[in-house]
Amino acid sequence: MNWVGAVVQGVLVGGWYALAACGLSLTFGIMRLVNIAHGDLAVCGAYLTLVLSSALGLPVGYTLPLVLPIAFAIGVALHLLLFGRALRGGPLAPVLVTFGLSVMIENLLVAGLSADPRSLDAGRLALAGVRVTAFGSVITLSWLRIAGFLTALAVLGGLHLLLARTSFGRLVRATSDDLDTARLVGVRVRPVFATVAGIAVATAALAGVFLGMTATFDPYAGGLSLIFAFEAVVIGGLGSLWGTLLGGVTIGLVQQLAAQWDVQYTVLAVHLLFFAVLAVRPQGFFPASEPEAA
Amino acid sequence: MAPVLEVRSLTADHGRLRAVSEVSLRLDAGEVHAVIGANGAGKSTLLRAIAGLHPPASGTVLLDGDDVTRHPPERRVAAGLSLVPEGRRLFASLTVEENLLVGTHVARPGPWDLERVYDLFGWMRDRRRQRAEHLSGGEQQAVAIGRALVANPKVLLLDELSLGLSPKVVRDMYATLPRLLAEGVTVLLVEQDVSQAVRVATRIHCLLEGRTTLTGPPAVFTPAQIEAAYFGLGKTHP
C-alpha cells in the first residue's frame, strides 16, 4: 500500500467508526445517556444477523429488513425497562446499569453461541474491489468498505434530516434542550427517548453487520468497538453528529497512516491521538453547544 | 358553575422544608388571580405544583372539576392547564417558530394558533426563523407566552413575568393580558411587583412562608394591609 491508498482507506474505515459511534453520540447528545453496552449491542446485531441468515438461508443483506426493526424494538424495550429509570437515578446510575448490561450480554453470548470468532458471509461483495488511479498511484478499494462508508453517510444524513426537519425531531431537540419545560408544553418524554434509544441500537446493529462482514467478531468484540466509538464521539465533539463523522474519519486516517509505518502501532496511535485531543481541545472539533440543528 | 381551577389545601415540600402550606384557590372562568409575596414565600412552588412539576405532599388540584393532582404535567397541558415558567425557559437551540410549534404538540381546539400569536406580538412574524437564544429577555418572555397560548389552555399560569425585564417591557407584556382574557383564558399569575399585580388582578393572594396571609379583591385592601400581609407585620392569620 502507499500513502494515497492509506488516506483513502482511512476515510472509508472511518465511515464505519462513525456508524458505530453515531448511536452513542445520539443518546449522549439527546438524553445524556452514556451507554457502555453500545459496542456489545453492535456485536449482538452481528450475531442476530448470523443466526437469522443461517436459519432462514438468506444472504446477509436480505436479513437487514428483519434485523433493524428487531434492534429498534430492543432499544425501545431497553429504554422503557432500564435506561429511563437509570437516567432518573443520578449521573452514575446509567454508567453502572449499562456496564452491567454489557457484562450480561457478553456472557450470554458466550453461553449461547460459544466464544469462537465468527464472521458474516458478504457473498460476492466480500472479494470484489475496484481499482482507481489517483495521484499517479493505483489503489484497490473494496466494495464492502465503500458500501460501509456510503451507509454511514446515509445514516448520518438521515438522522440529521430527522432531527432538523421533522416534527418528531423538533420534539427531540426541545426535550434535549430542557426536559422539564418540554413536559410543561405537553411533550411525553418517555416515548420520545425510547424512540431515540431504538434508533441508536438499530444503528449499532447496522455497524455490527458491517463489522461482521469486514472482520471477525466474538462475544467480547464489543469492548474494543466501544472504545473506538467513544473516541470518535469525543474527538468530534460530544453529542454532535457531524462531529462524530469527522471523529470517525480522523481515527480511520490515523490508524491507516500508522499502519503504513508499522502495523503493530495502529491501536496505540489512535489512543495517542485521543489523548492529544483531550489535552489540547477537550471539547472536540464540533462541541455541541448547538445540537443537531446546525 | 364549577370553578375552572380549584386548589384545595395544597401542601408542598422542598425536601424537609415546607414551601407551601394548606393553600386554597378558586378561579372562575375569566378571572385573573395574582399570588404575591416576598422571595421564598412559596409562590413558584405553588404554581409548579399546580402545573404538575412539583408533586404536592397533600391537597387536591381540580381542573374543571376533574381531579388532576396525580397527573403529570404533559397530561395537564392536554387537559387545558399551561404554565409559563419563571425565567422563560425557551428551547434555546430552536427557532422562535419551532418553540411555538412544540407548544402546538398537544394543542386543544381553540382560538390560538401561530398566526394569532404573531398578530399579538407584531415583531415576532419577521423574526420567527431566529434562534430563541438570540432574543432579548422581553422577546423571550413573549415567545414563552405564545408557546403556552398555542396549546389553547383554559387556565394559564404565569410565573414572574416581570423578572429581569425593564418596566416598559413589563407594561407592554401586561398590556396584552386583556387580549388573552377576551379569548376566554383564565389567568393565575405570580408576581413580586405588587403594584403591577394589584392593577391587573380580580383577586390577590398574599403568601408568607407558604401560608396565605391575605386574600380578596385588591380594592378592599389598603396598601398598608397588603404590606403587612406581605412582610408578616401583625398577625392576619391564625
Automatic annotation (TrEMBL), chain A:
Family classification:
Belongs to the binding-protein-dependent transport system permease family. LivHM subfamily.
Which CDD domains has this protein been placed in?
TM_PBP1_LivH_like
User: Where do transmembrane segments lie in this chain?
Assistant: 6-29, 41-60, 66-83, 95-115, 135-163, 192-214, 226-251, 263-280
Q: Does the keyword Transcription regulation apply?
A: no
The name this protein carries in UniProt is Branched-chain amino acid ABC transporter permease
Which compartments is it annotated to reside in?
Cell membrane
Domain of life of the source: Bacteria
Q: Which InterPro entries match?
A: ABC_transp_permease, BCAA_transport_permease
Q: Which residues form a coiled coil?
A: none
> What membrane topology is given?
Multi-pass membrane protein
By its UniProt entry, which Pfam families does this protein fall under? BPD_transp_2
Q: Does the keyword Cell inner membrane apply?
A: no
Which UniProt key words apply to this protein?
Amino-acid transport, Cell membrane, Membrane, Transmembrane, Transmembrane helix, Transport
TrEMBL record, chain B:
Pfam family, any one: ABC_tran
Q: Which InterPro entries match?
A: AAA+_ATPase, ABC_transporter-like_ATP-bd, ABC_transporter-like_CS, BCAA_Transport_ATP-bd_LivF, P-loop_NTPase
- The residues covered by the ABC transporter domain are 5-234
A single Gene Ontology molecular function, please?
A: ATP binding
Identify the Gene3D superfamilies for this entry: P-loop containing nucleotide triphosphate hydrolases
Q: Which UniProt keywords apply?
A: Amino-acid transport, ATP-binding, Nucleotide-binding, Transport
At the top level of its lineage, which domain of life is listed?
Answer: Bacteria
Family per UniProt?
Belongs to the ABC transporter superfamily.
What is the protein's name according to its record?
Answer: ABC transporter ATP-binding protein
